[in-house]
């Protein structure tokens, strides 16, 4: 899994880089075989109420699937990274599980729901 980091006009320290890379690799442990690339952009933006906030954007490129893109804005960059990476990993896992199970799981779930409905019990 390739991890790309872009920090536009942001004070990007070696400690923050290590933290980000460790967070991404840990979050994508179960799906790393399905992920081509994870691109992370960090930058400061203007807050609606004045001041500055931190934006973390995580893009996950998957083969034969749409790219997963998550934006997280927080006052603290570490918090933005945590939330964005966790949400991106969760959405990626859901997308890869859908691909594995395909239409059989949907048909199975519909049949199970139908047979469990009280109106169909005898």
Task: Report what the structure shows.
The chain has one domain: Ribosome hibernation promotion factor-like (Double Stranded RNA Binding Domain), CATH 3.30.160.100. Helix 1 (14-27) packs parallel to helix 2 (77-116). Helix content is 44%, strand content 28%. It has a four-stranded mixed sheet with strand order 1-2-3-4, with helices on one face. The protein contains two helices and four strands, in the order E-H-E-E-E-H. Strand 2 and strand 3 (52-61) form a beta hairpin. The protein is globular and about 45 Å long. It has 122 residues and is an alpha+beta fold. Residues 93-122 are annotated as: Disordered. It comes from Noviherbaspirillum album. This is HPF/RaiA family ribosome-associated protein. Residues 93-102 have a biased composition (Basic residues). Pfam families: Ribosomal_S30AE (PF02482).
List the helices and strands and how they pair.
Layout: E1 2-8, H1 14-27, E2 37-46, E3 52-61, E4 68-74, H2 77-116
Parallel strand pairs: 1-2
Antiparallel strand pairs: 2-3, 3-4
Helix pairs in contact: 1-2
């Amino acid at each position: 899994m390739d991890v790309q980091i872009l920090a536009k006009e942001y004070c990007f320290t070696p400690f923050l880089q290590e933290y980000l890379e460790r967070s991404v690799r840990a979050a994508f442990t179960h799906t790393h075989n399905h992920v081509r690339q994870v691109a992370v952009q960090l930058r400061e933006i203007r807050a609606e109420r004045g001041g500055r906030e931190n934006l973390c954007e995580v893009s996950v490129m998957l083969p034969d699937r749409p790219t997963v893109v998550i934006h997280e804005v927080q006052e603290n960059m570490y918090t933005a990274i945590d939330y964005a990476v966790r949400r991106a990993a969760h959405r990626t896992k859901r997308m890869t599980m859908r691909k594995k199970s395909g239409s059989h799981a949907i048909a199975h779930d519909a049949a199970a729901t139908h047979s469990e409905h009280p109106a169909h019990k005898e």
